[in-house]
Amino acid sequence: MESLFSATIVLLLVSFSCFTSSALTSSNGNITIKWDLMTWTPDGYVAVVSAYNYQKQRSIPSPGWKMSWRWTRKEVIWSMVGARTTKQGDCSMFKGNIPHSCINKPTVVDLPPKTPYNQQIANCCKGGVLKPGLESAFQISVGQAGTTVKTVRMPVNLMFTAPKQQYICGPTKNVRPTTFITADKRRMTRALMTWNITCVFNKAT
């Protein structure tokens, strides 16, 4: 079950911190997706997923991007902030708290700009529109997953789609954890783990 306290801490961290990782200045001409694992929960983890548009002259227009992947175990999504899955799937095996999604290959979409503030994190809720040089982000609480750096498993077969644009995404890679600095610049922290996926524009459709 997800940890509400841990999720709240992550919301505060993402809302009031800025990135210092070199990921923000990586290669041009692609969409870079980054999973920052921020805290462990009793049965999984809370992560912030960010998509950076390094394409200099190509925007992701409305109705916006979609992101999907495949879990390698029986992971579920307990909750999301700043985005949602398009389908919940069959969660009938759960009693009490029902997951946000029980699908093995979920598809995630951004939330609209007028989303209530308590359902947002920094850089979310643009209706999927992603202009050059900017990022889009959401928070995800994953359950039935590993709870240490040795037992957790990366999602695979990630796909990034956009209106009239086709992208090819590479494999998920375990990279150096992202570092963060608080708004007052008095403290630096870092993610527990960081996974990176690069998606390259293939052709217009």
TrEMBL record:
The cross-references to Pfam families, in alphabetical order and at most eight, read: COBRA (PF04833)
> InterPro entries attached here?
COBRA_pln
Family statement: Belongs to the COBRA family.
Keywords for the protein's UniProt record, in alphabetical order: Glycoprotein, Signal
Q: Which residues form the signal peptide?
A: 1-22
Name of the protein in question: COBRA-like protein
Residue spans making up a coiled coil are none
Q: Which domain of life is it from?
A: Eukaryota
